[in-house]
Design a protein that fits this description.
Distance between the termini of chain B: 37 Å
Number of domains of chain B: 1
Number of helices of chain A: 3
Largest sheet of chain A: 4 strands, mixed
Low-confidence stretches of chain A: none
Low-confidence stretches of chain B: none
Shape of chain B: globular
Oligomer: heterodimer
Mean pLDDT of chain A: 96
Strand content of chain B: 25-35%
Radius of gyration of chain A: 16 Å
Number of helices of chain B: 3
Chain lengths: ~140, ~80
């Protein structure tokens, strides 16, 4: 069973996520994957540590999905976010949006991605090769 | 009044704990923030740039607290 909103250490297969919702009215499915990135402006990042206020973040994300449904007439949306250690190059954030057509899917997906990043109580700490760490702001 | 306070990310590192129950004199989130800034002077800068949630809802600093509320200090978020 693939959860619609999930924040935790697991990562689910994209195929299973895609197959977790079926609706013959949906002709466009947009998938966004955020990947742990080594920000050259910050230094030599080896991995990211994600922390979340899980219960509140799930609540905020569910509100964002409802807003996207109203604004962009999307049919369904799955949001997963990893917590704990995520090495550079490994996915940490997944948003999948099902809509009637591509325009709604693109717009709805962008809305959910942007708003989760701005509003969900989730934080990342950069861990550098030197062993030093820094909480990222934005 | 007594409230439960949750600390995350930067502020958790600064106060050295993830939660505590504290008794303070005052009514609003703003009063509580002032109390925390005095108790943890090293966390004052993070408190200044944080958002606040009461019982898992974002609130502004004028929000009135009541006994037993769960208040989360939310430093700048950076998910994704």
């Amino acid at each position: 069973m693939i959860p619609q909103v999930y924040i935790g250490e697991n990562w689910f297969s994209l195929d299973e996520v895609f197959n977790s919702y079926q609706n013959p009215l949906c002709g466009g499915v947009d998938i966004f994957i955020g990947v742990a990135r080594s920000a050259p402006e910050d230094g030599d990042v080896q991995e990211l540590h994600y922390e979340a206020y899980v219960s509140m973040a799930e609540k905020v994300i569910k509100e964002i999905i409802e807003e996207a449904k109203e604004k962009y007439s999307i049919h369904h949306c799955v949001v997963h976010h990893r917590t704990g250690v995520v090495p550079v190059g490994v996915p940490s954030f997944l948003v999948v949006v099902w809509a009637g057509h591509r325009q709604e899917a693109f717009a709805g997906c962008r809305y959910v991605v942007d708003n989760v990043k701005a509003r969900a109580p989730i934080w990342k700490k950069e861990v550098f090769k030197s062993g030093q760490t820094q909480w990222k702001e934005r | 009044m007594k409230v439960e306070i949750l600390y995350f990310s930067q502020i958790k590192d600064k106060v050295g704990k993830s939660s505590e129950v504290l008794e303070f004199t005052g009514n609003t989130v703003s009063d509580l923030v002032e109390f925390l800034a005095q108790k943890y002077p090293n966390a004052k800068d993070v408190l200044e740039k944080s958002m606040f949630a009461v019982n898992e809802e974002y609130v502004d600093k004028q929000a009135i607290l009541k006994e037993g509320d769960k208040v989360a200090i939310i430093p700048p978020v950076s998910g994704g």
